[in-house]
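Help needed: design a sequence for this.
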């Protein structure tokens, strides 16, 4: 069991060393007076008691510890969300994801590419945890896994400057509900 735990910690540390680094910028929407009417997805709360029982059985069998429940989703710029057109010509796409009772939420993106000046923000209600990604810190990767964001509600916000059409068509493929 101890070897399995150490192995899991090593794998997580190794994977995180390649993760995208976050900037400290504030979300664009917090700097502007935009409508708070944003497309919202409410995911059902998983059966945490059942998950904990499964986890106990898995632990007895020596399987690695699970801390979250994964929702397979399909959200993106052309599928869902709210788009706001800004006075300087930029566009801001937002979506809120809620899942009652989550200690943390995180998400994974695919086909993500940034044009110059584009930014992706992921933050919790009240913006006490804000993560920002851009072409400067995405390291050329097109897949992104967000860190765990405290709370049971997150906002995902994508900004592109200027008078251009959205140049990316990224997908949000997973939302992870952390119950431990």
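Sure. Designed sequence:
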């Amino acid at each position: 069991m101890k070897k399995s735990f150490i192995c899991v910690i090593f794998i997580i540390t190794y994977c995180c060393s390649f993760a995208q680094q976050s900037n400290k910028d504030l979300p664009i929407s917090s700097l502007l007076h935009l409508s708070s009417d944003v497309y919202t997805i409410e995911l059902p709360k998983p059966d945490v008691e059942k998950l904990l029982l499964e986890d106990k059985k898995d632990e007895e069998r020596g399987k690695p510890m699970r801390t979250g429940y994964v929702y397979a989703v399909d959200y993106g710029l052309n599928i869902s969300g709210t788009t706001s057109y800004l006075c300087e010509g930029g566009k801001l796409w937002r979506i809120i994801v809620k899942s009652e009772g989550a200690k943390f939420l995180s998400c994974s993106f695919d086909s993500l590419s940034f044009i110059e000046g584009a930014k992706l923000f992921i933050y919790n209600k009240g913006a006490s945890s804000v993560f920002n990604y851009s072409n400067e810190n995405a390291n050329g990767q097109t897949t992104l896994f967000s860190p765990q964001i405290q709370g049971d509600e997150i906002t995902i916000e994508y900004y592109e400057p200027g008078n251009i059409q959205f140049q990316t068509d990224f997908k949000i493929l997973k939302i992870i509900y952390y119950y431990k």
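The chain is about 20% helix and 35% strand.
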